[in-house]
Amino acid sequence: MNEAVRSAGIASQPEANAVEPARDEELAYTIGLQAYIYGYPMMDLYRTMWETSFDPNRGHDRTINEFFFIRRLATHEDEWVVTPNNDTIYHRAFLDLRAEPIVLVIPPTGRRFYWFPIGDMHHDFDGHLSWDTVGSRGGNFALCPPGWQGALPEGVTRIDVSTPIIWLLGRFAVDGIEDLPAAAELQDHLKLVPISQWEQSKVDRPNINPAAYPKFTRNDLTDANNYFTTMNEVLRMAPRLNNTIDEGIFGWLREINMHPSQRFNWETLSCPARRGLSRAAAEGQRIISNRQRRAVPIVNNWQIARLRQKGSDNPVVAAASAMLGLLYNPRDVSTYDVAFSDAAGAELQGSKRYVLHLAPPPPVNAFWSVTMYSAKTFRLVESAINRYSIGDRTKGIMYGSDGSLDIFIQHEEPGVEAEWANWLPAPEGHFYLAMRHYSPKAAILNGDWSPMAVQMR
């Protein structure tokens, strides 16, 4: 065959094969698996935003660009976020900055600890405002979307964020139920002010069109059609500029018409491609779930989470971290130790009896706690004594003469007074523990201090 014939043969192939969505099931599966894991933190954040800001059944009238104040400590009934703490009250907000910057106003807080991590839609952090970094005086902080140029009012500090849609999950420390009224009163002085209304004496409530934000619920996280369709839309709504991780995955997304510049349409995919993406969603969910228990270094069978401000460059770890504890803090704010198993490597089980020996307890500038969670629901565990956590602020706990502390962990109520005082109630089934160190000292950050293993008695 001469060159002209060969060229004619190549030219005679349908040109659409080079640009239409992948027809091969394995190619679609391979691309879909990477896309699912890469997109999981963003999609679970978007799911949280939609369910808490637009779901007609959300139980309140707050939407985006305004605070939703949680004026009580979390309990076993809370399901809006996984692995919540029981140490602080929350002030939650998702902000859409595509129209203009919004100014976060933090009032003077006196001696009360506070934390305001500022996160983008990939769960990377663009900064954190806290008692440690700002001080008790508070301040005014303009949250500016990528590429925004403009003059800010006097007395307003600029903070550039990575995506035009972001989230805030502020926290005020609460020292027990009796301290709640004072902490809740301080929430009333927090403000979110669009820059165009900065000089106004009264700020208008946001006028948001819910139809502009596609519906996405928890069930959609495992529905390939809804997951990838909505992911394509969210990538357009909240783009990051000049991000190498994004650019790398976007080249693959073109193969299935999911690049942000394309309109993804599940119905136009071939049956093999749809099968591949459906497999990818199921397998991605399994991989992320399994990786939760080894997402970070493990010491004494505790996951030692000292999370960086920018974690999306490690997609599997970022996805596993988001599944375990969405809206978590970077290590500058707080650090976490998570245990699913005891010293022997066996899963923690409420029917057994354990002791956690802390010698010494965690070194912190603020405070620390150990919280109990159901391994089935990722929620707090109801108990007869209404104790969800135990820590250095728990009244009546008993320390050893050397300053050490033994925490007794089991479902049945202990019969010994010293054990009862230091009892952390467990559910009947499998559970896990999360130890939080608020404003950790250097010994925690550099690894000089780490928790001892949970011992079965």
Structural class: alpha+beta
Question: H/E series, N to C?
Answer: HHEEEEEEEEHEHHHEEHEEEEEHEEHE
Strand order of the main beta sheet, please? Answer: 10-11-12-18-14-15
Oligomer: single chain
Radius of gyration: 24 Å
Structurally, the number of domains stands at 3
Helical coverage, percent range: 10-25%
The CATH architecture category of the largest domain equals Sandwich
The beta-strand count equals 19
H/I helix tally = 9
Overall spatial form: globular
Distance between the termini: 81 Å
Sheet of most strands = 6 strands, antiparallel
Question: CATH topology of the largest domain, which one?
Answer: Immunoglobulin-like
Provide the CATH superfamily of the largest domain.
Domain of unknown function DUF1254
Domain DUF1214: 336-441
Domain DUF1254: 64-194
Organism: Steroidobacter agaridevorans
Protein name: Membrane protein
